[in-house]
Each structure stands twice: as C-alpha cells, then as structure tokens.
Design goal:
This protein is of the alpha+beta class. Helix content is 26%, strand content 23%. It has 17 helices and 23 strands. The strands form six sheets. Strands 1, 2, 7, 8, 9, 12, 18 and 19 form an eight-stranded mixed beta sheet that branches. It has a seven-stranded mixed beta sheet with strand order 5-4-14-15-16-13-17. The chain is globular, with a radius of gyration of 23 Å. The two termini are 35 Å apart. It binds flavin-adenine dinucleotide. Flavin-adenine dinucleotide binds next to helix 1, strand 2, helix 4, strand 13 and strand 16.
C-alpha cells in the first residue's frame, strides 16, 4: 500500500489522544446533516420515558479548511428534499438561499448559437428549487449545530484539522490521526511544531467529498470497491462568481448547456446560476474519462464565457471569486461498500451524486441522515461492528436516494461521447425504463487509464499543449488566465511545509509522460500547480510543483495517467478561501 501521508509517522513524537463516541471527518453537507440529525435523534430518544439514556457522549467533527465553508465548493441548485427532512422550516431559520429557480434554459450549444430545448428534460427541471452557495450553506448548518444544546452530549467542531491517516486496531477503524503542523520542508520540526492528535472514536464517519484521501486508504485496506460494477469516476468543474450589471440577468435564472466548447465525442456541460445581489455563478464541468490528454475545465470555462448567449450577461461585470473541484459521477454502479467495522462513508466519498442532474448535495445529506439513524442504534446496542453499521447501507439503498441513483445508473456512460443520436435514443429508453438501457449495466474504466497519447489523440507524436490553438485569447477581463483565477480563489499554503502532492513512482515517469502524453497534469490542473520546464533539447527531468496554488480539487490524484500523483492533506488550514462558491 502506498504511504498516503506527507509526513513520516515520527515514532518518537508524543501525541495527545482524544476519545470520541462519534467522529465526523469533513464539514461538507453530508456530514453536517449527519451530525445535526444525530443530535435530533439523541434528544428525541432521551425524551422517551423509561428509555435507556444516551448520555456522556462526545461527538467531534474535523475539517481541513481554516473555517467551515472555506473549502465548500459546488454549483449549486439544491433539491431541498433532504434539507426538508432535516429542517422542515428551513426557510424560516435563516437558510441562506440565493433565490428560487424561476426561469430555466437548457441548450445544445454550437460556437455561435445552438438549439434551446423547448422545455427542460425531466432531470434538469429545477423550478422552485433554491439556488445556493454551498460555502454559505454549510456555514449556516454549522452555526445551527453550534447553537444547539443537547443534554448529555458535547459537540466539538474543529476546523483547521486535516485527517492524515486512519487509525486501525485489529483490522477495524478506531479513528484518525490529524496532520502535524509546523513541519519544515525536509520533514524536521520547526519551533512552532504541533504534533497531530490521535482522535479515537467508536464510529468514524468519512465525508471527505470526492476522492477522499482517507477513503483511498480505507479502500486499499478493506477493498471497499471490490463488489462494485464500476470504478469510481469523476468530472472536474471550474466556476467563477461574477458581480454583474444590475438587471442584466433576472432573479431565479438558471441555464444548463452541453455541446460547444467541448469537442464532438467529449462529454461535459455548463451551468449559469443567478445569485442574490447581482452576482452570477458561471461554471463548466469536464468528464475526466476523456481520452484527450489536454482536457482542461478552466479553458473550457473561458471559452464558454465568449458564447453569444453568455457574454452579454457578463458585460460590464467583474470577477469576484474562482474555484474548482472534482465531482463524483459514477453513481449507483460505482458505489463502494458504505460501512465497515468502526466506520461509514457518506456523500461524494461514496459516489452519492446524480450525474444527470449535476446534483449530489441532497443525496449526500440523505447519506448523513441514514448514517445518524444507524449510529443511534449502534450506540444503544454498543455494537460498532460491520454488521451493525451495514444497517446504514441498507437504509440508504432502500431510500428515495437509492432509487434516484438506481434510475440514473447508466446516464454518464450513455453520454460518454456527447449527445449523439444513439446517445439520445438510449437516454430516452433509460428515462422510460427506470434506468435500464441495452447493455445495462454499462461499464466504465478508471479515468486515468482512458487518457490517450498525444499521437493517438492529436495524430502528432510529441505535440505539446502550447503547440495547439487554444481557441481563446485571455483578455484579463472576460477571459482570465489560470493564475489570475487562482488568485481569486484565495488559495494559500504555508510554503515551509513539505509539499502535499506526492510523486509516487519517481520523476522519470513524469519525464516519459512529457514525451508521450505532453504531461496532462500541466493542463488539467485548474490551478496551474504542475509545470514542465524543458531544457534546450526539449527534455525535462522532473515536474515543478507549486503546491501553494492548490485548490484541493483532487483532479491530479484522479487523472494523472501514470498514477504518479497522490494528493494528501497539507497542514490543516491551507487551501482555498471560498465564501461565495
Ligand atoms: C462544479 C460543481 C457543480 C455542482 N453543482 C451541484 C448542484 O448544482 N447541486 C447539487 O446538489 N450538487 C452539485 N454538485 C455536487 C455537490 O457539490 C457535492 O455532491 C456535495 O458537495 C458533496 O458533499 P459532501 O459532504 O459529500 O462533500 P464535500 O462538499 O466535498 O465536503 C467535504 C469536506 O470535507 C473536507 N475534507 C476532505 N478531506 C478531509 C480530511 N482528510 N480531513 C478533514 N477534512 C477533510 C473538505 O475540505 C470539505 O469541506 C456540484 C459539484 C461541483 C464540483
């Protein structure tokens, strides 16, 4: 098993050990919904006369962002079904909605125009759903939790702490160790060295989002993916938030498109969401199972903004914030085992996303809700073994969320080569046949393995991205170079620490990839972390990594065609600073 840590185990270091009954890793909507519901259920249980009381409990939540919400990134139009289950009167509780969807457009774009669907297809109907900034939404959820007092329960929300490695005892999960802080690039401690803590828990809920670093360790040890039909697969989405001229875009406006700027045979799509206060979210997602070694979500977004339907909305506006993140799109057929002795997986870490709807928040939140129910039963029975916790997996798959994921189980594979006539026919069949389509279940391959050589894809051996037409010129106004966008993400890391992006198999692998595939990491990374600096002969010896730019999207860990990059958490607190995303 590869070493998933940036840090050595440091055998001599004294680590504080903290005991929790339940520990949540990651403050995304899935885990926050889980923690919130857990408090509700404990309170309700303890109010029953004569019930065995649940008391003296300590529940913790760690988040690698400096503050909860800093690393939360999404579209987003929310299907409020899970939020309603959690908090039926959320609209009266200060929920930070950006407005309700009132006007929807769905397009198949060509470079200069396109075809607008007369009515949105059923999976893209959003009328009445709230538009949200996930960053604002999770801050609200955390505040609601902080304001609660449940007798007999201590809740500790701990932002700025990254889970670095899983703690194991006799093959079962018993918590996580957090990252050391104040470590020098060479691994030696600095004067401000703070050793990571051993956070031990009876149940640990892993809600790390897409391509969880600890989830990878769990899979490597427990084989969680073994029973799945397909491997986990992803898209990468890049998004900008703009301040726009008042009145240019009506409140509640939502646009989705496919087609241009993606080339024929490629899959991906856009979203444009009107936010409160004359702001607009404009985003583009690119499927990472593309064969194109030069697929680039950031570039696709820059081109997309020049489309005649989009450009006028941004005229006279200004860029406020940028971000990027991977999105799990494998769905039903790529879901790992959801529970094991001492732990559970929720949300994107378990592929709980409906790729057809570009929605995962409600499905991940339902994961949290189902997990909470099982946790209460497990605490009452004091049984934290695999069989006990697998009740969560059954409850989830039998819920409306399981049914929704099952219905769209073939969506991504159907559209894997874009909206062709065959794809449209198969999609139509799947919509009326509860997800079935000829060949069901359609297979997928790991994203990294799909990447072609430049010779195979572009017909030219040794071609580099800069040799090809970019299809857009950055003007610094409408179209923004990557590094300017990175600046707008607020990404920052303490540069004294060891790099958190680890090259696994050595620099020679990167040098060969430069020759054959033109180093896709230098293109797909939406934060320009990776660069190749060829010598006079055009040769490179190693990849240059500016880890401080990293926006924690995880694309490199997923799409490096050689499996040569492992993303590990930096010291807690580093990374992007999202407030509007
Ligand atoms: C471009 C884009 C557009 C989208 N649009 C929509 C939409 O319109 N509607 C919708 O419903 N969904 C949308 N989604 C999907 C949605 O954002 C996700 O499904 C959802 O955020 C998943 O929630 P989660 O709680 O599982 O994980 P996340 O939201 O990813 O949260 C995980 C949290 O865990 C933290 N974390 C990770 N690892 C560690 C660690 N080791 N230690 C401590 N903390 C850690 C992270 O910093 C993060 O805060 C979109 C996603 C993208 C990328």
């Amino acid at each position: 098993m590869p070493d998933y840590s940036t840090q050595s185990v440091r055998p001599g270091v004294d680590r504080e050990e903290l005991e929790f009954d339940v520990l949540f890793v990651g403050a995304g909507p899935s885990n926050l919904a889980g923690l919130w519901r857990l408090l509700d259920l404990i309170e309700r249980h303890n109010a029953q006369p004569g019930a065995k009381r649940l008391e003296g409990l300590t529940i913790g939540l760690i988040e690698k962002g400096d503050a909860i919400g800093d690393h939360a990134f999404s579209g987003a139009v929310l299907d409020p079904i899970a939020l309603r289950e959690l908090c039926p009167d959320y609209r009266d509780q200060g929920f930070p909605s950006e407005g309700d969807v009132a006007r929807e457009e769905v397009w198949l774009f060509t470079q200069r125009g396109g075809m607008r669907a007369p009515v949105p297809p059923p999976f893209l109907r959003n009328h009445g759903n709230p538009i949200v900034s996930l960053s604002r939404m999770v801050r609200w959820m955390a505040e609601r939790i902080e304001q609660r007092t449940v007798p007999g329960v201590d809740v500790m929300l701990l932002p700025g702490f990254a889970g670095m490695r899983v703690l194991w005892e006799d093959g079962r999960v018993v918590g996580v160790q957090t990252a050391d802080k104040g470590v020098q690039a060479d691994g030696s401690p600095r004067s401000n060295f703070e050793p990571g803590n051993r956070l031990k828990a009876k149940i640990t809920v892993f809600g790390e989002g897409p391509r969880g670093h600890l989830a990878r360790e769990l899979d490597a040890v427990l084989g969680l993916q073994d029973g799945a039909v397909n491997p986990q697969v992803y898209e990468t989405g890049a998004k900008e938030i703009w301040e726009i001229q008042p009145g240019l875009v009506p409140d509640g406006f939502v646009l989705h498109s496919t087609g241009w700027p993606q080339a024929d045979g490629e899959s991906g799509g856009s979203f444009v969401y009107k936010l409160a206060g004359d702001r607009l979210a404009v985003g583009y997602v690119v499927s990472l199972d593309t064969q194109d070694p030069f697929a680039d979500a950031h570039l696709a977004l820059q081109k997309f903004k020049t489309h005649p339907r989009i450009k006028p909305m941004l005229e006279g506006g200004k860029l406020l914030q940028y971000g990027a993140k991977a999105l799990a799109i494998g769905g039903w057929n790529a879901m790992p085992r959801l529970a094991f002795a001492g732990g559970m997986l929720v949300g994107d870490a378990a592929q709980m996303v409906n790729a057809a709807r570009l929605k995962g928040i409600h499905l991940g939140m339902k994961g949290g809700l189902c997990a909470a129910e099982t946790i209460v039963q497990a605490l009452l029975e004091e049984d934290f073994g695999a069989d006990s916790l697998m009740r969560y997996a059954r409850a989830y798959t039998e819920s409306w969320a399981g049914a929704e994921l099952r219905r769209t189980r073939n969506f991504h594979q159907i559209l894997g080569h874009g909206l062709t006539a065959t794809a449209a026919m198969r999609l139509g069949i799947s919509l009326v046949a509860d997800g079935w389509t000829p060949g069901d279940p359609l297979r997928s391959e790991p994203d990294a393995e799909r990447t072609a050589s430049t010779e195979a894809f572009y017909g030219k051996a040794g071609v580099k991205r800069d040799d090809l037409d970019w299809g857009v010129k950055f003007d610094g106004q409408l179209t923004v170079p990557k590094l300017d966008d990175v600046y707008a993400s607020g990404a920052m890391h303490d540069e004294h620490q060891p790099g958190h992006l680890k090259i696994l198999k050595g620099d020679q692998v990167c040098a060969t990839c430069w020759e054959t595939k033109g180093s896709p990491c230098t293109v797909f990374c939406p934060a320009q972390v990776y660069e190749m600096h060829p010598d006079a002969r055009g040769k490179v010896e190693k990849v240059a990594i500016s880890f401080s730019n990293c926006v924690h999207c995880k694309t490199c860990d997923i799409k490096c065609p050689e499996g040569n990059v492992i993303w590990t958490p930096p010291e807690g607190g580093g990374g992007p600073k999202y407030s509007l995303c």
